[in-house]
Amino acid sequence: MESGHQHHQTFSLLSAYVVFGFLHELSHHLAASFVSHGSSSPDVIGSSLTVALQAALGRYSLIQLPDDYDEQHVEAASKIILHTGWIFSLILAVSCHLLFIIVRRNNDVASLHQHQQTSLNHGMWHRLFLNPILPIAAYITAMEAIATDLFGFVPILPYVQDTSSSQLICFCGNFGVLLLNPSWLNIDGGRTALDVLEKMVNVTMMRGAQSGGVVTFEPDKFSNKSNNSPIPPALHGVRSRVVNSKRTDLSQGVRRKIVKDNCDKLTGNLRGWKKSDYNSSSSRLVKGFFGHTRFATSSKASFDGTHPHQWSKPTTYSVYPFGTSIASDSAAEVRPRSVGVENFITHNGDFEFFNVNGNYYDTEIVQLWLEKVLDTPMPATVDSAGIAGVVDLLRTQGSFALSIRFALCLTLPSSKVEAAPAVDYPTVREYQEIAKSFETELNNLTDGADMNYGKLSLEDISSDKEKRNRLASMVVEALREKVDVPNPGLGFDRLSKFVSFDLEDAEWTNFVRATVDAFFDNDLFHTARLFFQDAKGSFGLSVSSSLDAHRQVCFAARGQTCSIAFYPRKGIICYGSEQAAVKAGLNYENPGDSKNVARNAHDEKDNAVRLDLDDLGGEICLLDWGYAGNDKPSISPPNRNLQVDKVMNNSVNLVLLHLSQVDSGKRLTKRLTPLEHNEFIKPLLDDCADPVLLDIRDIPRVCQQIQDDWQTVGLNRMTAWNLTSCIRERMQAIVDGKIKHNGGTIDILVTGCEVSLWLAEQFVSDLQKCFPLLYLKAVSSNKLLGLFGQELSMPAIGHPYSQKSMDMQDPIVIIVSHSGGTFGPLACSNLLQSFSTSIFTVTSEWDTQIGKQLRSMYSDDLLSSRIFSTEVGVRPAEPCSVSVAATHQLLTNIFEHICITLIGDPHFHHASGSTVTDRDLQVLERCNQDNIKALEDIVGVDKNGNEIHQARSQTERELRSAGDLWAEHILENAKAYIMSFVYVVATVTSGFPLISAVAKACGLSGSEGYFYIIRFLDALIYFWLPQINITIIRLFQGRNLRHRMVGRCVVIGDVPWVAQSAEAFLSKIFACSYSIAGLNVLSGNPADHLVHRHTHRVVRGSLLVCGRPDGRLPALTSLEASTCLSVNQASSIQSMGGTCESITIGHNKSKLPLSHKAIYLKSHRPLFLSEKILDNMDADESARREMEQSKEDEKKKFSLSRLFGIPSRAERHADFMDMAKSRKATTVRSSASLMGAYVNLEREARKKRAQDSTGQHEDVAYVIETMIKERQGIENTNRLFNEIDVHGDGVITQEQFIAAYQKNDASISEEHLKKLFAEADITETGTLDFDEFLKVSQMPSLLAELKIKNRDERGLVQVQPSQEGYFGEDLKKDSELGANSMAMSQSQHFSMELYESRIASLQRFVSMTVMFHQMGMRVQSFFPKISFGYFGYRMDRTHSIMRIATTASPVSGADVRERMDELRLMLEVERSVQMIARNWKKWKSGGNMDDEVQHGKDDAWDAKKRRSIMNVSGTFMGRKTMF
After folding, report:
1. Lowest CB count within 10 Å: 49, 584, 1321, 1422, which one?
2. d(CA 784, CA 782)
3. Residue 1275 clears pLDDT 70, i.e. is over it
């Protein structure tokens, strides 16, 4: 009975809680209806049932305020609606409490003799209010209401991402679409068009997405009848802006806001659907969306700072109909009409200064000045808002009021920018008052008032300077008459304070002429031109106006990228700052008949193409699609000399203006990049639920594709051919002495940012080891920009780089950027043109921003390619995996190719000091090809995208199991919090905490002696409840109980590039995780500083994952031992018996005693010779024991095998081992055991060499043989050299060399020996000195080296993979197994190092991404499950949402373009001075003819370089430079 009563009480409480929640939400809706009285009613989002469930169970409601509310009305209504809710709930709770007190008091004093005939209803209500459940539920609801409505603690709904004020709940990028084909709007109401737009936002978000917005224009009034008028309807802008939350998707939020602001509430179709305004055959409007995503650089991400920006609110002006057929019709009556004027801009970059009358003013001052000039408060403090204000000032065509303001503010000799002007500027009304005189005179002139001209059109006056001057004269005369009368008007009084009305002063006339010129000239295109003439900064800009949106829009780029894609067949134009974004049109089809625009679907001219604006020199683009049959572009006279091109099947006019003096001179058709039927263009990936997993599973396929592509004559091979040419040219200059090396010389410069830089550093490290005499540097792109791209150089403190320490004599530059659009590498691709003519890039695909820059430097044809492509395409996931692995894979192929180029020529081999051999490269290539199988095992997917068999997926399962374990560590606090919440709510609500309930069950609850003890124990449980619950969770899951109960920290240890890349990957995975499941990520090099940097952070429960080098290889044994020592030292720091939980990942099966787990990676490669030695020694030992056991057995019984001559099992095993075939090592050795084994073998080898050196074999043939097999020291080589040098002249002739070697081995052909002699003869003297002979003597196997080829059967330079059963088989063919072989295995040490840095480290990185992905996915999936989808986040993006850093950070890019020209000019001047000085000295000293010839050669080489630099850098743009 008591249990049933408790269940009834619980149910009653929950029911009351739901009812009060519903009443609370109902109060919000009633308040919304009240505030909208007299206006359109607010919309409730969702059906009635949905709304009721949201209110009762979800305890929230979505109220959509009317669109006709202004911002002040919205803010006031929002406050009323919000505050009504908590006030109502609080009053209701107090009322219930008072009723409870009254009813209870009455119940206590009630008489037992009251009427028993009281109605049943009275008894029910009496019992209801006597129960305390009602006030408790009411107070809980009131507290929730106060927290949400008053204090704003509102949970973020995954599907409610609109944070604008009208709905209650820079790294930047431009984007937009133009729907030329009406099918995009009329077939499905614009839904497919919004899909395209959402996809573009999603891609552009890679540049940063803290906020975003879109503006579109629509008629003030829609018409149901066809409009045949040549004058377009009045338009107004509809702006939709969203500030993104931490865990929401901006692309979805922007779309929802567009739907809310631009779609019909009932049908969901875009406004204009089926309207004649967008369907008329004669006068049809084009729907356009102009948008922007913002990553704040100059201010916080706020709603006010969100693009599109507008400074002046819509204002009505008298405007003449320019851009229409009436403007050019002299017979038509030309009169202005009153229309609203508003301008919008979107901008990515930085607006730093604006020039007025030759003086540059800071943006902040300009914005304060604009407030006074435009008579409008500053809408936002961001710099882009200032551009909107300047555009308002410049866009004046057709309006005399706007033109007067322009002339007054910017054209007078006294015009200047002031934050607080001494004289107030005229107001809008005053400008309009002055403009009436201009309008009157213009009307008179067009009506034929001047008999000399007759009746004129606007176009007649605009295009004729004489007629303009006549109009200006008429205005001057009319105004002088007006100002002569008393009290001409307040506007003229204000104007007189700026302009002199004196007849003798020309200022008044000049002012009127400037006004007239602005009236005719300042259209949208000229506005952009004027802005760029006077603005300083970096700009990717779109400009649109309500006066022009019916037919044109303007884009511009300078220092920021902008691309425009034309889809003639689909009838849509996409533009954006991100090249990849404009490819969104490839993923969607026109919902209607695409032939409305494209006549022939198979016509090549109908294929989609893209135009990339020149962001280096600066370029403005105007798109004009005409209106009402007027197909000619509407361009004012100052720009009519520009070329007009036709695009979109001649339906759109395109006008380009280059801002620099340098014009590429390319025709438009040569600049267009085909997007369809182009093998180098990769379409955007479809959306998926887990992009991180998709990337990881794509790694084997991408790496295999890179290897396959390298075997064919494709893009990468052609680029490699060009790289080879550049390397050969530079090496030849080094050999010829034209390049003098010094401490600062740079032969190959590799640059990048973040992950790309870390990969580049490993690449340069490997190359430098191969060629120690070359000067190779890996330098951050930001450091290069800081040193060479700024007017004031930024010092690289802590790094040995400066302008003087870096000798940049036309180095070979390789820019690594796995995204292809990061600002630093992109800016370097421009900046370094002043230093180098040999610039290459390693990027994600051919079609990237850096690729575009390099294609503009060189030719677009494949033969001139400078782009190495991984072909991974656009990967939107911020945690990078496949792009990193693919870049590392491609750098491995490039590394091999550079090595072949340098060691293939004996002169280059000598000049570079090469230490790498052909055999090293063959071993590396074999490991490279076998690496694909290893990667398949790690990710669980083969190279074709199919899941591998379960038998092969053991590695992946172990990695994911480790990820699950660590995910449980991270989630334990969240789970314990939920358990604690349930316990507290259950025990407090029921009134029976655990100990109290047990005591009551035992009959102890009524005892006063136990009362306080019971309560004390319950209090202790409440206090220690989180720890108790964590302990319960750990016991249930079988996890370590000694770990600290705090947030977790993961430390990653491996070689630098792996540790840093894995740290970036994991930290981004958890960037948006909730704080209760947060993670701190650190990294270090276990062979260097991991112990020093992180062991003091070790606590119980710290998580350490460490990559172990393959210590089974002697070159890496010490490295693995150091790594294991670091792990053991970290794991030995204990407290209360607990320490960090460490996991090792590597190719050695040995597990460290103090580590928690060792994950073994299968090698999938042949054994090295040293491994084979140990393997065979272990097998021999096993065979010896078996033979001994067999002998014991034979003594006891008769052996049939002996009778029939069949060898025993031990003998068969020994015979098998004598066959030099590779087999898998079965003995597991620790790093210490491996080190001991290899040290013992090395000692035995040295001991045997010492014994052999005391023998009696003194003949030359024996010494040669022992030298080749055991690589004796320089002493033996010197003695051998002297014996072969029978003449004693210190050199060996070719005949002596051949005779000595053939005496040792007659099988070696004379042709092979001649080839070997020629390669060794670096000086080309026909003889070998001791140093050259030493190179030959160090070859471990002469015959093996002579067999190596560097070309495949097609003649392509190609590293051929080793075909040996085990690496070193050819070296070991004639050698015994045992200690003597260790000397020969030492020749493979460098191969082992390359295997570690290029192959094994990549496998460990991929392994960590698999493990970390499982961690992240487990944590990500937890929160939606326990909250029924209420909470959640996506691990493929971070809070900053910055996949590609496309804005200058931390180094500004404003000066890069100017610095390019300065550096180029300084370089030219310096070389010219050197040439003049050299020739002057020759002339003065009367130098001989030989010197002149030699200097002439040097001059010719220098001149060649200068011409190359001149070709790629262009001409100097007039910037003043001090030398």
Report:
1. 49
2. 5
3. no
Q: Are 277 and 227 in contact (CB under 8 A)?
A: yes
* Distance, CA of 1059 to CA of 1087 (rounded, Å): 12
CA–CA–CA angle 339, 341, 343 (5° rounding): 155
CA 848 to chain centre: 12
CB 748 within 8 A of CB 811: yes
Contacts of 506 (CB under 8 A, 6+ apart): none
Q: Which two tokens stand for residue 1034?
A: 């750990």
d(CA 1058, CA 1070) in angstroms, rounded, equals 18
* C-alpha neighbours within 13 Å on the C-beta side of residue 15: 8
Q: Dump the DSSP string for 1036-1058.
A: HHT--SSS-SS-EEEEEESSHHH
Q: Which residues, 6+ apart, have CB-to-CB distance to 1068 below 8 Å?
A: 878, 879, 1435, 1438
* 639 DSSP 8-state letter: G
CA distances from 74 to 66, 68, 164, 947, 1141 (A): 9, 9, 10, 55, 55
Nearest-CA neighbor of 643 among 660, 655, 630? 655
Residue 58 token pair: 């979800």
What's the predicted TM-score (pTM) here? Answer: 0.77
Q: Is the pLDDT of residue 1454 over 70?
A: no
Task: Report which residue type is found at 99.
Answer: L
Alpha-carbon radius of gyration of the chain: 41
DSSP string, 1431-1458: S---TTS-SS--SS--S--SS--TTHHH
- Structure tokens belonging to residue 74: 């919205």
* Displacement of CA 300 from its chain's centroid (Å): 21
Amino acid at 894: I
The helix/strand/coil state of 509 is helix
- Reference 132, options 16, 4, 2; nearest CA is 16
pLDDT of 301 strictly over 80: no
Structure tokens that stand for 1220 in this block? 């030099």
DSSP three-state, residue 1262: helix
What letter would DSSP give residue 586? G
Contacts of 477 (CB under 8 A, 6+ apart): none
Interval 822-875: pLDDT, tens: 878 888 888 888 888 899 999 998 888 888 888 877 766 667 788 999 999 888
The amino acid at 672: L
Phi, psi of 404 (to 5 degrees): -60, -45
> Do 609 and 674 form a contact (C-beta atoms < 8 A)?
yes
Neighbours of 609 (CB within 10 A): 22
Alpha-carbon distance 1069 to 879, whole Å? Answer: 6
pLDDT in tens, 386-426: 999 999 999 999 999 999 999 999 999 889 999 888 888 99
